């Protein structure tokens, strides 16, 4: 079991490294919840480094317990990997990125329109 757990850790590190090359916005998905508490798998900055995080707290908690996935025990890492949560988080991050880029592009288009309208109004003496 030690060999496969080491491979899991190595692959998590590889995915983190690849994620750092593409994403720099925090994103998360729910892993489990019950009776007012919730647990998330997140990709976020922790101690200056972008990495996978396990975030656990009460639903209204302003300061949930946040620790790197790799700092958790093998059981937690195995649960996250076996449940497909890393893949789900990556897919969520891609969707979030695409949505944010689309919103920014629409905002830029509107801003350009406004600039053109103001420039035309200035020429008309308004």
What keyword list fits this structure?
single chain; 126 residues; alpha+beta; 4-stranded antiparallel beta sheet; 3 helices; elongated
Brief synopsis:
The protein has helices at residues 2-20, 74-82, 85-123, and strands at residues 27-34, 37-46, 49-58, 65-68. It is α+β, with helices and mostly antiparallel strands and 126 residues long.
Fold and architecture overview:
- By secondary structure, this protein is an alpha+beta fold.
- It has one domain (about 1-125).
- Helices cover about 55% and strands about 25% of the residues.
- The protein is built from three helices and four strands; from the N terminus they run H-E-E-E-E-H-H.
- The chain has helices at about 1-20, 75-80, 85-125, and strands at about 25-35, 35-45, 50-60, 65-70.
- The protein has a four-stranded antiparallel beta sheet with strand order 1-2-3-4.
- The longest helix has about 40 residues, at about 85-125.
How many domain regions?
1
Instruction: Name the structural class.
Output: alpha+beta
| Poorly predicted sequence stretches spanning 5 or more consecutive residues | none
Number of helices: 3
How many beta strands in the DSSP annotation? 4
Helix content: 40-55%
The largest pleated sheet is described as: 4 strands, antiparallel
- What would the principal axes of the Cα set say about the shape? elongated
Rounded to the nearest angstrom, the radius of gyration is 21 Å
Task: Please write the string of helix (H) and strand (E) elements.
Answer: HEEEEHH
- CA-CA gap between termini: 76 Å
Widest sheet, order of strands: 1-2-3-4
Average pLDDT number: 92
Binned strand content = 25-35%
């Amino acid at each position: 079991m030690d060999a496969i757990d080491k491979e899991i850790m190595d692959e998590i590190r590889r995915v983190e490294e690849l994620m750092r090359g593409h994403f720099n916005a925090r994103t998360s998905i729910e892993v489990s919840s019950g009776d007012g508490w919730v647990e998330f798998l997140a990709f976020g900055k922790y101690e200056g480094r972008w990495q996978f995080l396990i975030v656990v707290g009460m639903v209204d908690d302003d300061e949930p317990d946040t620790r790197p996935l790799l700092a958790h025990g093998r059981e937690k890492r195995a649960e996250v990997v076996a449940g497909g949560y890393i893949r789900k988080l990556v897919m969520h991050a891609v969707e979030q990125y695409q949505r944010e880029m689309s919103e920014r592009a629409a905002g830029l288009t509107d801003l350009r329109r406004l600039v053109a309208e103001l420039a035309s109004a200035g020429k008309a003496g308004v």
